[in-house]
Design brief:
The complex is a heterodimer. By secondary structure, chain A is an alpha+beta fold. Chain A contains six helices and eleven strands. Chain A folds into two domains: 137 residues, 60s Ribosomal Protein L30, Chain: A, CATH 3.30.1330.90; 71 residues, ACT domain (Alpha-Beta Plaits, 2-Layer Sandwich). In chain A, the strands form two sheets. Chain A has a six-stranded mixed beta sheet. In chain A, helix 1 packs parallel to helix 3. The two termini of chain A are 20 Å apart. Chain B is mainly alpha-helical. Chain B has one domain: Orthogonal Bundle (2-methylcitrate dehydratase PrpD). In chain B, 65% of the residues lie in helices and 1% in strands. Chain B has 13 helices and one strand; from the N terminus they run H-H-H-H-H-E-H-H-H-H-H-H-H-H. The chains are: A alpha+beta, B mainly alpha. Chains A and B meet through strand 1, helix 1, helix 2 and strand 5 of A and helix 2, helix 3, helix 5, strand 1 and helix 7 of B. Strand 1 of chain A pairs antiparallel with strand 1 of chain B, so a sheet runs across the interface. Chain B: Its cofactor is [4Fe-4S] cluster.
């Protein structure tokens, strides 16, 4: 079942006008920022389907940028996010795409700064609920409703066991786990949804394990 | 965990508790939070709904200028006393409109189940409360019951206009509201389910065709009629009228209808009212585009 909580239905509290095209968009932007780990210096935002056709009317553009600026769905500053982004010297570009996607409310965000770049795709499935479906070319399923860790690693035996051992030592329960790879023996991605927010020390410990390329987290 | 309306009703009736109670218990189980935490979270939502209605009844105007002020007009009309349908019905309609006018003006609202359909549940709640005099806790129960039925809809059909058309948004909201009104008025869980079935049957096939892609025209007035539909269906169910097609099958039909709806009628502003000459004209005016561009 996609919707698990009554507050997926009665909620979120948000700035209008659309839960999928405004609140959901803000959430996708915010998860993107979380995954990137800091405020990006630039972002190229591509809209598909209903997003591409109606983003201006729904404020999807200001909402995504609001999310990138770390604003929650009810933050009044969302309305002025383009101005605020400019003040913070964040470069934003919007694209309207014609390609047909599986879900009508799909957005792709490429973002980065002088140190790093990241690309993700997210969908807004209704009532403000979102899923992140792709990160740096990896397919993934992430509800954004639980804290999660994303571990990019080399596709070798024992890596998953090592990571889950670290979590077990810290008594962190895994709610859901997903592993995907682009090619056998190359880069792979572990997506782990957990029950509580994680301390930086746990992430550092995972980062120090062999064959780990990058570790990022999403807070609740 | 209940997966459909039949299971929800069966759970409530076998335990002899209200639907809202089942929803609260499930939320406790799923999230591990206490009853107080969950009620507290819902109270924040209720506060937001009250503030939004209040703001809308003072009069708001959207940025595009397409919507705003109708809630006030209707309240003035009610005060004159010459209405034909009924005071409580029109009060619900006015308060549903108030909420959606605030939403269109990018004000703060609580999505129920979505922002575009956020008027129906609070509109009906704040209208029936004048006759039923619920306690604060009973108002929260209203929202949990609405949430329980919405939960089934969201998981078995859709609550997204882009995926299932307006029937998935205002249709869902109206069905949820009808079920919650029945519970607050003292009806049984079965009667709540009948009220939702009757409401949804009259919302099936409703398309999502917002002019200029804005959640304004026809969304605000769809909320008005969603509220009216919910009120009448609740009264019908309380009178003992039942739906020949069971509620879960109506939800199944809604899902299939949504799937077969063309993309032009699912929140793309490509068809329906959005594609009428006036709809196109308004769109061109709002975005400052030449009419020929589309």
């Amino acid at each position: 079942m996609k919707y698990k909580s009554v507050f997926d239905i009665i909620g979120p509290v948000m700035i209008g006008p659309s839960s999928s095209h405004t609140a959901g968009a803000a959430r996708i932007g915010r998860v993107a920022r979380d995954l990137f780990g800091r405020e990006p210096k630039w972002a190229a935002i591509s809209f598909y389907g209903s997003f591409a056709k109606t983003y201006k009317g729904h404020g999807t553009d200001v909402a995504i940028v609001g999310g990138l600026l770390d604003f929650d769905t009810f933050d009044d500053r969302i309305k002025d996010s383009l101005k605020i982004a400019k003040q913070r010297k964040m470069k934003i570009k919007f694209n309207e795409e014609d390609a047909i996607t599986d879900h009508p409310n799909t957005v792709r965000i490429a973002m980065g700064d002088e140190k790093d770049e990241m690309e993700l795709a997210g969908i807004s499935i209704g009532g403000g609920k979102i899923e992140i479906i792709e990160l740096n070319g990896f397919v993934l399923r992430l509800s954004g409703h639980h804290p999660a860790i994303l571990v990019v690693h080399n596709d070798r035996s024992g890596v998953i066991a090592n990571v889950s051992n670290v979590l077990a030592r810290h008594q962190i329960n895994i709610g859901q786990m997903d592993v995907s790879r682009k090619e056998k023996g190359k880069l792979a991605l572990m997506t782990i949804e957990v029950d509580q927010n994680l301390e930086q020390a746990v992430l550092d410990e995972i980062s120090a394990l062999p064959n780990i390329v990058q570790v990022s987290r999403i807070a609740d | 965990m209940f997966r459909n309306v039949a299971e929800l009703v069966e759970l409530a009736e076998s335990k002899n508790v209200k639907i809202s109670q089942i929803m609260i218990e499930q939320e406790m189980e799923v999230t591990g939070k206490t009853r107080e935490e969950i009620l507290g979270k819902m109270e924040i939502n209720l506060d937001v709904m009250e503030k939004a209605v209040k703001r809308g009844l003072k009069g708001v105007k959207s940025h595009s200028g397409l919507t705003g002020g109708d809630a006030v007009l209707l309240q003035e009309y009610i005060r004159k006393g010459n209405y034909l349908s009924g005071e409580m019905l029109l009060d619900a309609v006015s308060k549903a409109v108030a909420t959606n006018e605030v939403n269109a003006a990018m004000g703060t609202i609580c999505a129920t189940p979505t922002a575009g359909s956020a008027g129906v549940v609070p509109g009906t709640l704040f209208a029936v409360e004048r006759k039923l005099n619920p306690t604060r806790d009973q108002k929260l129960e209203f929202l949990f019951t609405a949430g329980a039925f919405g939960f089934v809809l969201a998981n078995n059909a859709s609550i997204s206009g882009a995926a299932g058309g307006c029937q998935a948004e205002v249709g869902s909201a109206a069905g949820m509201a009808a079920a919650a009104i029945v519970e607050m008025a003292g009806g049984t869980p079965s009667q709540s389910a009948e009220a939702m079935a009757i409401t949804l049957k009259n919302m099936l096939g409703l398309v999502c065709d917002p002019v200029a892609g804005l959640v304004e025209v026809p969304c605000v007035k769809r909320n008005a009629m969603g509220a009216a539909n919910a009120m009448v269906a609740a009264d019908m169910a309380l009178a003992g009228i039942t739906s020949r097609i069971p509620c879960d099958e109506v939800i199944g039909a809604m899902f299939k209808i949504g799937q077969s709806m063309p993309s032009a009628l699912r929140e793309t502003a490509q068809g329906g009212l959005a594609a009428t000459p006036t709809g196109r004209e308004l769109e061109a005016k709002i975005y400052g585009l030449p009419l020929t561009k589309k």
